[in-house]
Amino acid sequence: MKADLEKPLPRGVVAREVERHRGGAVARVGDALAEEIPVALVYNGRPHAVMMATPADLEDFALGFSLSEGIIDNAAQFENVEPFEALAGIELRIEIAAAKAGLLADRVRELTGRTGCGLCGAQTLEAAVRHPPAVAVAPVVHAAALRRALARMPQLQVVNAATGAVHAAAWADADGRVALLREDVGRHNALDKLIGAMQRGGIDARTGFLVVTSRASYEMVMKAATVGIGFLVAISAPTALALALAREANVTLVGFARADGYGVYAHGQRLVADAATARAGNFHGGHDI
User: Fold this and answer.
1) Which of the following is catalytic: 40, 117, 178, 190?
2) Which of 74, 206, 222, 280 lies in disulfide reach of 137, CB 3.0 to 4.6 Å?
3) pTM for this model (two decimals)
4) What does the pLDDT read at residue 129?
C-alpha cells in the first residue's frame, strides 16, 4: 500500500521519482519513501549517541531513549530538548539533571548506531547486557484484547502505509484499545518514541501492554522492563536472550501474534486464552509457561 502523492505526506516521508517495471512496461513514477537520517543525542553539551532514525516525534524519542537506556530514572530528571537541523542530520540538545549528566559522562558510552541499533558501541559485556529490576505489576489481558489491538494498529501506521518501510510500537490498555503508536525505521527507535509519548501523556505502564511490529530482541525486552512495562507482544519471534531476560524481569512475552493465534514464551499466567483456542491448542510457536 502506498501514499497518494497528491495529498500531504506524513512527517518522515518524502516523495521521489523512481523507475517502475510492471508487466514488461517501464514508467517513471512518484514513490513515497521513509526518511532515514542521523540523529545525534547530546546531553548537557556532551555528545553521547548517533542513531539512524525517522525524523518524526523526536522529542518523544529523546525522552524515551533517556529512560529506556537508564540515563535518567524518571521524567522529572529530563529538563529540556531542542532539535537543531544541520546538513548531516538533526542534533537533539538535551538537558538533564546535573547529577545524572555526571554519571553519564562516567559511563563513556558513545555509540554510532545503525538503523535501530540497540547495543552498538557498548564497550564491555556488562554494558551490553543490562539487567533491569523485575517488573512489579502488570495487567491480566484476554486474547480478545490482543486481537483488538492487532486489528487497530495498521489503521494508525500512516508512515508504513505510505512507504511499507517502518516498524511500529503501540500501547494498548488491558481491553486492547490502542492509545498511542509511534513509527520509525528502527524498531528500538519506535519503542523509545512510544515510551517518551507515554511519559508525556501520563500513561501508567502497569495498566496495559506493548505491541511491536518486529521480533522481540533482547533490547526490546530490556527497554520495556526498564520503564516498568510487564507485557510485551511481538508479531515476530523472540530471541533466546529476550526470553531469558523476560523470565528474569517478570515480563510476559508473547510472540508470533496473529488474529488466529500466538505463542506464549514467558509469564503466561497473565494472558487469558479463549476457551476454544486453549482446547484446540491454536498457537503459532512458543509454549505457555
Assistant:
1) 117
2) 206
3) 0.90
4) 73
